[in-house]
């Protein structure tokens, strides 16, 4: 923690908004404790990457206000991971998302992508508070707010811009975290020290392996394994390459390598299955001696919907049979209903005749209150030809 707060560089802006969040965190010591405890696995790595780039160490605290350092956090806007990338921005920064994995949850890849994006925003806007505002609301939102103030001859710094409420609170919330990190006792909080050394490392792993077996070979809990390898979305982890890498606690890496070399049992307990036309979930579960709930969970199936014909799902491998889990797969045949969200919402919408705020909110899957807040509207009235902003997350 001392390493972090000794490298704070962003100008302090203590005000009523930051005080509000200091009070909020102070009133929730269990939440703060859980957030800090969760961050212990990742902070050393994130701080190191921030320092390599010459960025302020406050940036390493940003996942605390984005996700409370939860790698499997999801938001209403489909943002995922500790850095809360929405699907389109994640893809833009090279974070692969498919049925098998979601790299927005990978600590290393997502951190590098987030720092790339933040550096781009800093270069674009010139100050860290504006870069952070753009990370939260989108560069278009901040750019338009700056342009409006310029046109009116008003200051264009963060404090004077007309921004969505969440974005106005974003930097003050980070300020509150900074203040708490620097002096937790002042807020009636205790923060456990974190060793100033790496928590995790990489190990080579087979191209196809059960996730729970990988955890067992490392002699760590399944939850611990998932917190470090949370990009994997299935109980079967596979890659098209000859091998892959897992992230493991340093004290478990050698254990994994040793146990893997001595393991004589099958690495896979799953098969890839193509359902027959109109075959029901229950029938498939019975065929492979599975509970329906297990089949649904493994494949993220919607029990209210039929499995589409010619799709591919995971099923339990029957004892004594060979696995086909390493075979080539036509990825387009994987259950389409279960793929990550591919719909990309536009940044803006021009109001047309017959539009109502309710219709627009429904069309673009936004709660009306959120749509009003993004556009700082006090009433649901809209004018034909006016522009509504539809997004504020990065």
Shape from CA axes? globular
Mean pLDDT: 90
- The main sheet orders its strands as 1-2
- Determine Rg (CA atoms, Å): 24 Å
Element order: H for helix, E for strand: HHHHHHHHHHHEHHEHEHHEEHHE
Largest sheet features:
2 strands, antiparallel
Assess the beta-strand content as a share of residues: 5-15%
Helix-and-strand structural type: mainly alpha
Q: Give me the number of helical elements.
A: 18
Helix content range: 40-55%
End-to-end distance: 27 Å
| Number of strand elements | 6
Low-confidence stretches: 337-343
Q: Can you offer a commentary on this structure?
A:
The chain has 394 residues and is mainly α. The chain has helices at 2-5, 16-26, 29-39, 43-52, 62-66, 87-92, 107-125, 128-137, 139-151, 165-168, 170-182, 211-218, 222-228, 250-262, 281-287, 292-299, 357-363, 368-374, and strands spanning 200-210, 236-249, 270-273, 313-316, 348-350, 387-389. A two-stranded antiparallel sheet has the order 1-2. Strands 3-4 form a two-stranded antiparallel sheet. A two-stranded antiparallel sheet has the order 5-6. Helix 2 (16-26) crosses helix 11, helix 7 (107-125) packs across helix 8 (128-137) and helix 15 crosses helix 16 (292-299). The chain is globular. The two termini are 27 Å apart.
């Amino acid at each position: 923690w001392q390493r972090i707060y000794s490298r704070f560089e962003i100008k302090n802006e203590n005000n009523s908004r930051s005080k509000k969040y200091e009070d909020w965190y102070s009133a929730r010591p269990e939440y703060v404790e859980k957030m800090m405890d969760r961050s212990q696995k990742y902070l050393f790595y994130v701080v190191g990457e921030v320092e390599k780039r010459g960025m302020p160490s406050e940036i390493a605290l940003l996942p605390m206000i984005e996700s409370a350092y939860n790698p499997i956090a999801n938001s209403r806007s489909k943002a995922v991971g500790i850095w809360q990338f929405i699907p389109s921005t994640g893809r833009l920064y090279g974070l692969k998302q498919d049925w098998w994995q979601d790299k927005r949850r990978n600590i290393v890849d997502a951190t590098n992508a987030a720092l790339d994006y933040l550096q781009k925003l800093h270069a674009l806007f010139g100050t860290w508070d504006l870069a952070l505002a753009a990370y939260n609301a989108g560069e278009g939102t901040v750019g338009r707010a700056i342009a409006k103030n310029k046109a009116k001859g008003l200051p264009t710094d963060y404090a004077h811009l007309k921004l969505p409420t969440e974005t106005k609170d974003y930097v003050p919330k980070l300020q509150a975290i900074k203040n708490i990190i620097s002096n937790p006792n002042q807020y009636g909080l205790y923060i456990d020290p974190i060793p100033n050394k790496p928590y995790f490392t990489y190990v080579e792993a087979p191209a196809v392996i059960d996730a729970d077996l990988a955890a067992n070979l490392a002699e760590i809990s399944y939850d611990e394994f998932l917190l470090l390898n949370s990009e994997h979305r299935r109980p079967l982890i596979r890659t098209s390459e000859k091998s892959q890498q897992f992230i493991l606690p340093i004290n478990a890496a050698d254990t994994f390598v040793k146990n893997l070399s001595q393991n004589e049992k099958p690495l896979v307990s799953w098969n890839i299955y193509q359902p027959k036309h109109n075959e029901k979930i229950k029938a498939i579960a019975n065929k492979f001696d599975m509970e329906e709930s297990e089949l649904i969970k493994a494949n993220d199936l919607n029990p209210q919907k039929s499995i589409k014909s010619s799709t591919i799902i995971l099923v339990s491998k029957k004892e004594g049979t060979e696995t086909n889990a390493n075979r080539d797969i036509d990825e387009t045949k994987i259950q389409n209903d279960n793929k990550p969200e591919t719909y990309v919402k536009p940044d803006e919408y021009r109001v047309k005749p017959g539009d109502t705020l309710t219709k627009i909110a429904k069309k673009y899957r936004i709660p009306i209150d959120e749509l009003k807040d993004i556009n700082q509207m006090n009433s649901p009235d809209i004018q034909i030809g006016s522009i509504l902003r539809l997004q504020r997350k990065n």
